[in-house]
Amino acid sequence: MKKGIVIKKISNKFWVAVNSEIFICSARGNLKGSGLFVGDNVIFSTTEFIIESVLERKNLLVRPPLANLEQMLIVLAYAPKPDYLILDKLLLFCEINEIKPVICVNKIDASRKENQYIQTVYGKFYQVLELSAHKKINIDKLKKVLKNNVSTFAGQSGVGKSALINSLFDSLITIEGNLSEKIVRGKNTTRHVELYKISDNSYIADTPGFTALNETLLKVSYYELAGFYPDFLEQSQGCKFTSCVHIGETNCMIKNAVSSGSIDLKRYERYVSIFNSLKLYDKNKYKN
Ligand SMILES: Nc1nc2c(ncn2[C@@H]2O[C@H](COP(=O)(O)OP(=O)(O)O)[C@@H](O)[C@H]2O)c(=O)[nH]1
Ligand SMILES: [Mg+2]
Ligand SMILES: [Zn+2]
């Protein structure tokens, strides 16, 4: 018996990686009910090539189907102009699914225009890396963050996700160039998810699903939404009502913090906008 990680799944075959070796396995019948996903840590027999059991999962995403995603690197740049609503939704997705988000501000060789806003609004609660794929600034820090983790890159098209992945490979680029092309696809051809090894015990998940994050993927009710804002948490303890959603209530510490400037007005307005679309979604769910 050996322990490995499922890096690829095609119909009922599973590619299981153990360090640099890959075994193509099938699954024991009793595992088919609970499902077996890319990202699963499994115990398998090296004589029969059958997966016998799945170790406990840290989390499981349904769309894309992926187990044990540990980190999401959310990439932004001064251009294309950041869509902070996308950033906030991706951060919520991470908070809800217990994935560690890391905000990556790329292209700082060309402009640092957005850095101050990002540091002020997000820097106290989230790890922020300031990067340049072209000038290789802080790529060592990026490598350190990826080490011993299963991570994925997310963010608007054109921010430099492919360039950052390429920058990880140094002189190996000719060997691994193909691979980095595959990891962040320009055009999504298939819907399946695959893990790519970037160094020992470190994988990048190639997922088509994270750029246009829709409210329906946030498995949370509007009245619980504020609980997933680490920057609201401390101050909301002072709200008059424990069920305060920080919108219409009186004596709301969050609204006070927005007035005094200690919570960014735009961040708060994005919260209200996500709140309203979740509320609408909840209403429509029970119609018909
Ligand atoms: N100035 C600058 N441009 C970059 C950097 N990284 C990527 N780009 C450029 O941004 C554009 C989009 O990069 P790409 O990696 O394809 O973005 P993706 O769509 O997120 O994968 C390309 O024209 C890159 O040359 C960087 O660090 N600095
Ligand atoms: Mg790309
Ligand atoms: Zn409140």
Task: Describe the overall structure.
The chain is of the alpha/beta class. The protein has helices at 31-34, 84-97, 115-122, 139-146, 161-167, 173-183, 230-236, 253-260, 265-285; strands at 2-10, 13-18, 21-27, 41-45, 50-54, 60-61, 66-67, 71-77, 100-106, 127-130, 150-154, 194-199, 202-206. A hairpin with a 2-residue loop joins β12 and β13. Bound molecules: guanosine-5'-diphosphate, magnesium ion (MG) and zinc ion (ZN). Residues 161-162, 184, 186 line the site of magnesium ion.
Layout of secondary structure:
Elements: E1 2-10, E2 13-18, E3 21-27, H1 31-34, E4 41-45, E5 50-54, E6 60-61, E7 66-67, E8 71-77, H2 84-97, E9 100-106, H3 115-122, E10 127-130, H4 139-146, E11 150-154, H5 161-167, H6 173-183, E12 194-199, E13 202-206, H7 230-236, H8 253-260, H9 265-285
Parallel strand pairs: 3-5, 8-9, 8-11, 9-10, 11-13
Antiparallel strand pairs: 1-2, 1-4, 2-3, 4-5, 6-7, 12-13
Helix pairs in contact: 2-9, 5-6
The structure holds guanosine-5'-diphosphate, magnesium ion and zinc ion (ZN).
> In the CATH hierarchy, what is the architecture of the largest domain at level 2?
3-Layer(aba) Sandwich
Q: Any ligands, ions or cofactors bound here, and which?
A: guanosine-5'-diphosphate, magnesium ion, zinc ion
The CATH topology of the largest domain comes to Rossmann fold
Strand content: 15-25%
Instruction: Please mark out the parts with pLDDT under 50 across 5 or more consecutive residues, or reply none.
Output: 172-178, 185-190
Question: Element order, helices and strands?
Answer: EEEHEEEEEHEHEHEHHEEHHH
Shape call? globular
Top CATH class of the largest domain: Alpha Beta
CATH superfamily of the largest domain: P-loop containing nucleotide triphosphate hydrolases
Structural class: alpha/beta
Which radius of gyration do the C-alpha atoms yield?
21 Å
The tally of strands reads: 13
Amino- and carboxy-terminal Cα gap: 52 Å
Mean pLDDT across residues: 89
Estimate nothing, just give the exact number of structural domains: 3
| Helical content (DSSP H or I, runs of 4+) | 25-40%
Query: Largest sheet, if any?
Result: 6 strands, mixed
Individual helix count: 9
- Strand arrangement within the widest β-sheet reads 10-9-8-11-13-12
